[in-house]
Amino acid sequence: MSNTPKFPQWTKWLPIAIPVFILLFSAIYTVQAGSRKVVMRFGEAIGVSGEGVHLKIPFIDSTRTVDIKTQKVATPTTAASADLQNVQTEVSLNYRLDKDKLIPIIRNTGLDVDEKIIAPRIHETVKSVTAKFTAEKLLTERPIVKANIDRSMRESLSKYHIIVEDVQLTDFRFSREFDAAIEAKQTEVQRTLKAKNILERTKIEAEQRITQAEGEAEAIRIQAEAIRAQGGREYVNLKAIEKWDGRLPTYAGGDAVPMINIENIK
User: Could you count the other beta carbons within 10 Å of the beta carbon of residue 245?
Assistant: First the structure.
């Protein structure tokens, strides 16, 4: 009786099936949403695959995943203003790679665009734009500065098939001496404005007092003319009537109550 173990019949196909399975497995690849895969053959990009399942030549072709979603890079930079003030800021850039130009991107610059392409362009653009503005203008005309940087970045990076979606600037920072000078200037402006307001208010109040005095003087003049026109008698009678309480005196004579001409009252 032989002691040699017996195996199932299908096991004799394992030496063939295993290499075939490995071959098929290495030939299949998938591409996830929001990405592309660049097919490389002997180190050269020959094609780009979209989302889904694809085949490649095993052991000859390889794939490289490329993220085509929006990405963000933030780069601090230092430049000089038109009046030679040191300026520090940080530019945040939202961008994405042109999915239709992935092969030229890989062949010309590679996929490491953050350090190789975008950061140098940010430094170059910020220096070029800030050199056109004084330090004070950089503060007061910040939207214009941002628009210039945005436009320049879009034009510059489009040559590398990089699509800029948004550019953000942090606040400009200057030297302590410049900040102190700006603060002193603002303080002086506020002090001047306050003094001007006080002067204007004093002027208005003085004009009001003059107008009031002129009005009172005019009223006195009119009253004086009326007294002179009536010889003074009508005015005295009028004042007596204004002060009279409606009761006649119970005695006559003396100087307590002036004698009023009853006919004139009628």
Answer: 4
